[in-house]
Design goal:
By secondary structure, the protein is mostly beta strands. 0% of the residues lie in helices and 62% in strands. It contains no helices and six strands.
């Protein structure tokens, strides 16, 4: 069953990425509230917006950290801004 939290906010974070065939291909670690979290697995990724919709593209990554937390990160490529989804369910 898919859980959709109702009280969702996003906070800016620093993210180190792997750049393979394109820049910022995927996150490998991030810093949130002074703590560094390593990304163990990319569980899912998807895109929102883009040229066809006329909206600024946003890239989403559902990740599992090495401490087994499941976190949603999003990237705004035009501004190179990364954010973490913060809910009462995933406080790290």
């Amino acid at each position: 069953m898919f859980y959709c939290p109702t009280n969702v906010t996003y906070k800016s974070i620093e993210v180190q990425t792997y750049s393979g065939y394109k820049a910022d291909e995927r996150p490998v670690q991030f810093t949130y509230q002074g703590s560094v979290y390593e990304v163990k697995d990319i569980l899912d990724r998807w895109y929102e917006g883009g040229q066809i919709s006329g909206r600024t593209p946003i890239r989403y990554f559902r990740v599992r950290t090495t401490s087994d937390r499941i976190i949603l990160l999003r990237h705004h490529p035009p501004q190179d801004r990364w954010e973490i989804q913060v809910t009462s369910q995933n406080l790290i």
